[in-house]
Specification:
Chain A has 308 residues and is mainly α. Chain A is built from 12 helices and no strands. In chain B, α8 packs antiparallel against α11 and α15 runs antiparallel to α16. Classes of the chains: A mainly alpha (308), B alpha+beta (578), C mainly alpha (317).
């Protein structure tokens, strides 16, 4: 298993490098340069100002050199200064914002797991009967509405109609509730459905039949045997899911004014903030790879059939 | 002493300076109102505006704390508060106080400078600085600080993107472009602690006006040298304006505290200002939930806020003059035919089109909005833009598109922005289809890409707006349509007669004659259909009933923070909530 | 009896022919309810199982209705979707306008109907691209094995590691807005899942006896892949496509919300949701109506997809 883990970690570097290369090429192929003036109605900068700016950002060098410099610097953890927030380094910004997104994502995932498991188990236990339909509908409804609609809907419901929570911000735990719930609904739905499918598979399996044949009551059958086995494949789901919510959602963070990293997924694009785009993509990629590794190791530990 | 005469070559230069900073496109009103009629002692030491006094019986709240933001104000975290280096840092301007400032009528008035004088031809200006001018750490803010700041902006090592703003200063441009390396040759000099002498490249009667601008705000040398780029962070920054930066949680909020060392500190009533960073996506929700006291509004919130009797009185308009117009590209069919272009004017039902803007636009028949110098209410002009579907179709007779047939593919391009731009464009699409049978594809393009393509003149039909920089027709016509512009030309249309009228208007001294030239220019512009005016911009804000002290200008409009007038916070106070 | 591929049942699977009587020619004559004597394929079995799943059937019906609406939009919509009415902006449901009007006074019902067309196009178009890119890559990786497999798998892993939203926006910024470009953007960023699934399926099937058998019979590799292996690998692909359609609609909604999606006046549900979101407190029908439509579509495709997956799974009887 150690060998497995090490080889995965080693594969991370070339993967990230490839990701960086693809992003770099696509970024530079996109029209609209960061050298264009920031201001709304501004005239184009004079050629001298443009040259100055280009030199300042290192954009006047040939592409392969820019890439090489970027790789060299990022290995040392230096992604350069943001093109949009010019006095702050990308690293500084991410260090400030990533933990917040991580907190929000963790809470959302915890909620999603708790809710999803409950719904999924109910659905599987009462398959094709009322509970199943209700459960699946509720689960899918959470996935079916885009979260930027859900966000405003919740704000209206819980800030105005029933004044319980503030409309946004991140100061106290009260601010955490609405964004967490909004972010948790979609993963909850996915987990619920997955749980249901997994449990159904296990329920029908031979060893369950054996357990029942041996005379075990339904309760222990479900909770000791079925559940344990059913949950194992769900672990594989959690890896990418955590990577997705842990790096923040642009919509939820914007609408609820959460000062996290998710906003940069879009803002860095419109601002042509090259260093930020690269950093965000690589952070996401690395985080995903780490989560996948953790999940695979956990899977290996849980499932006696798997041997690395 | 008599203020120098400003000739129109200087006005032209002012236009260039302002245009180069691009600051241009925000409200920059009334700046040059005085320029064409200089002599009214505009730059003598009179207090700009008296401190706002509470009305009789008005009780002040115990805690003078204001929360503002939203709708576009600080929707992104500021890059810094260093206006001295980066005019578009998006920071809080009221941390600073310049030599002069703009009042609610957008006139430049003395601020940190108590007196501004010049030599006879206006090529050397002397600013006398108030002796009580201090930084927030108590140390004096002197002429040397301003000399340092302006030289810093011109220093090529600083790489300030809009240093060209100060190119009027002698050797400023040469220094900035590295043609000379000795900063002491640059024409700004502190004769002593309280006297700043500025030598210019030539007569520049408008220079004091420039010094009122955001680009001329000072920077604190000690902090800059100690902290480098990070000198505007909350713990490091030292400023000289009405407020200091008490805390700045990035991407979350900023908190301002009253600066006890500010020159007019006794007139500032607010103790604290809280500015959360609110993305536009949140709309007016925080304001409605009482998390903000003062906010700017977007179109979606208008109907609701105006419809509710509780919130309706809180909503008000503020001046933000601009014009929405179409530019049919004369180099691209079908718009290479002037009759087709003229038909557009008749086909647009402006009264109905502006309804979709929910109050953010009114019908326009020319470039200059009513109430500003050069505004036209000419029958001839109105006739050209009169909504008349029959006349529109009649215009097409003799063209290949007679009867509204055989139209080629037409793409209407606009840039991604708020203020109801998209619904207006869609409404224009709808009326063109209905009255000319002209089907258009709307293309919404990102800002940067839009500009690139605009300046290359590759767009076929453009939906675009222009914000007035200063209230002079020169701004409205020259920067937008002048044919001989070398960079940043928005369209391919040129017309020699039009250009000549603009040049005459620029070079004439007599105010009436000037306006006549510009009126003729507009007429030429419209008969040759270089553009099709559609609507004038309106903007709205909302303030809770306990927010008082918002200044009003001579026209009776309340004025809030824009790009020119930034002096709002030092006049506000909070009344006790009922 | 045709040469059948594994996973199918034949009518000889323990189902007794009913009421049969031998005719003079030796064929069995069916009297009364019967089951077909000819071999049923995987597909027919699956179809039967699908029909038994009520939720899936409900979902399927809705999907069919949506497709019909999309096809016959011109006939169904009471007004053209561009027809504005500046006097009646943002109105709620009335007799003239059963679903209300939008910011330009256009009929919501008509726009919803045409929006169905666009949303279906987005969903299907993107999926077509995803299948065209993903299936060959996955199949090639699984089938060829060895170094090709490793190379392709690495490539798939790298593409998988990209944050989807950012990458889609990146591609859209590169291409510009528009319907075709949305297909391309979603297609270019969404093929990874299907590639992986196809590869897994091909890998699994590669080892089965029937492949060995076919090889022994001299069937060439390419033909083997195409005619025998791939058809069996199709089931997860079908399932993935079914789930992918609402996902594409979603992505288009997100893109429109950000401002890089479909250009007006073409109505798409996603765009209507995006633009209506700011009006949720005043004219909520602008956002809620298309949201419900998207939700119902998503639900239907999900139930259908679930049903299809359950039906195609030979283990779940």
């Amino acid at each position: 298993m150690v060998h497995f883990a090490i080889s995965r970690v080693l594969w991370l570097l070339p993967t990230l490098l490839a990701m960086a290369l693809v992003t770099f090429l696509v970024m530079h192929a996109t029209p609209g340069s960061p050298l264009d003036p920031v201001a709304e109605g501004a005239n184009p900068l004079s050629p001298e100002a443009q040259q100055n700016l280009a030199r300042h950002y290192g954009l006047d060098r040939p592409l392969y050199m820019q890439f090489a410099i970027f790789v060299g610097n990022s290995l040392r953890g230096d992604f350069g200064n943001s093109f949009v927030y010019r006095t702050r380094s990308v690293r500084e910004i991410l260090v400030d914002t990533f933990p917040i997104s991580l907190l929000l994502g963790s809470m959302a995932l915890a909620l999603a797991v708790a809710g999803g498991l409950a719904l999924g188990i109910l659905a599987a236990m009462y398959q094709n009967r009322a509970w199943d339909y209700v459960s699946v509908t509720v689960a899918t409804a959470g996935v079916a509405v885009p979260n930027f609609v859900l966000a405003v809907f919740f704000i209206i419901l819980f800030s105005f109609v029933i004044p319980l929570f503030p409309t946004g911000g991140w100061d106290s735990p009260r601010n955490w509730v609405l964004p967490t719930v909004t972010l948790a609904l979609a993963p909850m739905g996915i987990i619920a459905r997955f749980t249901r499918a997994s449990m159904l598979e296990v329920i029908r399996a031979d060893y369950t039949l054996t357990a029942r044949a041996k005379g075990l009551a339904e309760g222990p059958v479900i909770f000791k045997h079925v559940l344990k086995n059913a949950l194992i494949p769900i672990v594989t789901l959690l890896g990418p899911m955590f990577a997705a919510v842990g790096t923040g959602s642009f919509f939820v963070e914007s609408i609820f004014r959460v000062p996290g990293m998710g906003r940069f997924f879009v803002l860095s694009m419109t601002g042509r903030d090259y260093p930020m785009i690269m950093a965000v993509v690589l952070t996401y990629g690395a985080f995903l790879a780490v989560m996948n590794l953790v999940v695979d190791l956990a899977y290996g530990a849980l499932d006696p059939r798997i041997r690395y | 002493m008599k203020p120098p005469r400003i000739d129109d070559a200087q006005l032209d230069l002012l236009a260039t300076r302002l245009a180069a900073t691009g600051v241009a496109r925000r409200d920059f009103l009334r700046v040059a109102a005085g320029l064409t009629a200089l002599g009214g002692g505009l730059f003598t030491a009179r207090e700009s505006s008296a401190a706002s006094k509470p009305a009789a019986g008005e009780k002040l709240a115990k805690e003078q704390v204001l929360r503002m933001g939203g709708g576009g104000w600080y929707q992104n975290d500021p890059g810094s508060h260093d206006f001295n280096k980066d005019l578009y840092c998006n920071g809080v301007a009221e941390l600073w106080a310049g030599l002069m400032k703009f009042n609610a009528d957008f006139q430049a008035v003395p601020y940190v400078a108590s007196k501004v004088t010049s030599n006879t031809d206006g090529s050397t200006w002397t600013f006398t600085i108030r002796k009580d001018s201090k930084w927030s750490d108590g140390s004096p803010c002197t002429a040397r600080d301003f000399e340092y700041s302006w030289k810093r902006q011109l220093d090529p090592a600083t790489a300030a993107p809009y240093a060209s703003f100060l190119y009027d200063i002698k050797n400023g441009e040469a220094f900035n472009k590295k043609q000379i390396t000795d900063a002491s040759q640059v024409g700004v000099r502190a004769k002593d602690d309280w006297t700043l002498e500025v030598t210019l490249e030539g007569p520049r009667g408008y220079f004091p006006v420039l010094s009122a601008y955001l680009a001329a705000l000072p920077g604190h040398r000690g902090s800059i040298e100690k902290y480098g780029d990070k000198w505007t962070e909350a713990g490091n920054i030292v400023s000289n304006g009405p407020f200091v930066l008490e805390s700045w949680e990035h991407n979350k909020q900023m908190v301002l505290k009253k600066n006890p060392h500010f020159i007019n500190a006794k007139d500032v009533r607010l103790e604290k200002v809280i500015i959360p960073i609110v993305p536009v996506a949140s709309g007016a929700l925080p304001y409605e939930n009482n998390e903000l006291d003062l906010t700017v509004l977007q179109t979606a919130d208008m109907k609701r806020l105006q419809g509710d009797p509780k919130t309706a009185p809180q909503v008000f308009r503020f001046p933000y003059p601009g014009t929405w117009y179409l530019t049919p590209q004369v180099t691209k069919p079908p718009f290479d035919n002037v009759k087709v272009r003229r038909a557009l004017g008749h086909a647009i039902d402006r009264d109905n089109v502006v309804r979709v803007s929910q109050g953010f636009a009114i019908p326009a028949h020319s470039m200059i909005p009513p109430g500003f110098p050069g505004a036209l209410d000419d029958k001839k002009i109105r006739d050209i833009q009169r909504f008349d579907p029959k006349a529109a179709m009649a215009m097409l007779k003799g063209t290949p598109y007679e009867g509204g047939r055989n139209w080629p593919k037409v793409t209407l391009t606009m840039r991604e922005e708020g203020l109801g731009s998209k619904p207006l464009a869609e409404a224009v699409q709808a009326v063109l289809l209905e009255h000319l049978n002209l089907k258009t594809d709307l293309e919404v393009v990102e800002q940067r890409v839009f500009r690139e393509r605009l300046w290359k003149q590759e767009l076929q039909l453009v939906w675009i707006r222009w914000f007035m920089d200063y209230p002079d027709p020169h701004n409205e016509y020259f920067d937008t349509f002048y044919g001989k512009k070398t960079t940043g030309k928005r369209q391919a249309w040129t017309n020699d007669a039009f250009d000549k009228e603009l040049e005459s208007g620029r070079d004439t001294r007599d105010a009436k004659k000037r306006l006549a030239h510009y009126a003729k220019a507009e007429e030429i512009l419209q008969t040759d259909a270089g553009y099709v005016p559609v609507a004038w911009v309106l903007r709205w804000a909302a303030a809770k009933p306990w927010v008082r002290g918002i200044e009003t200008n001579k026209a009776g409009d309340r004025v809030v923070i824009g790009n020119i007038y930034v002096d709002m916070l030092s006049h506000l106070y909070v009344a006790e909530r009922a | 009896m045709a040469l059948s591929t594994p996973g199918s049942g034949t009518s000889l699977d323990g189902a007794p022919p009913l009421e049969g009587a031998l005719s003079p020619t030796g064929e069995t004559v069916r009297i009364g309810p019967t089951r077909s004597r000819t071999g049923t394929s995987l597909w027919r079995d699956a179809w039967r199982r699908l029909l038994r799943n009520k939720l899936a059937v409900a979902g399927g019906i809705v999907v069919v209705v949506l497709v019909l609406i999309a096809l016959f939009a011109d006939v169904l919509a009471p007004y053209p979707y561009t027809k504005t009415n500046f006097g009646r902006l943002n109105e709620g449901p009335t007799r003239d306008y059963p679903l209300g009007t939008d910011q330009l006074g256009r009929d919501m019902l008509s726009r919803m109907v045409y929006g169905a067309r666009v949303s279906m196009l987005v969903g299907l178009g993107a999926q077509v691209l995803i299948v065209i890119i993903g299936v060959p890559i996955g199949a090639l990786a699984g089938w060829a094995g060895g170094r090709t497999d490793t190379l392709l798998t690495r490539f798939i892993d790298v593409m998988y590691a990209f944050p989807r939203l950012l990458f889609v926006i990146l591609v859209m910024s590169m291409l510009g807005a528009g319907l075709m470009n949305i297909f391309i953007a979603i297609g270019l960023t969404g093929w990874v899942g299907i590639a992986r699934q196809t590869r897994a399926q091909v890998l699994a099937l590669k080892e089965k006896e029937f492949v060995e058998g076919a090889r022994a019979l001299g069937v060439r590799s390419w033909r083997l892949l195409r005619r025998h292996v791939l058809p069996n690998a199709l089931s997860p692909i079908v399932v993935a496509v079914t789930f992918g359609i609402p996902e594409a609609i979603f992505t288009e909604a997100a893109l429109s919300f950000i401002g890089v999606g479909i250009n007006p006046p073409t109505p798409s549900w996603g765009q209507m949701v995006g633009e209506g979101q700011q009006y949720l407190r005043s004219s909520w029908h602008l956002c809620v109506v298309p949201s419900i439509a998207i939700a119902v579509t998503m639900l239907s495709f999900t139930f259908l997809g679930d049903g299809v997956r359950d039906a195609l799974d030979p283990r779940l009887k």
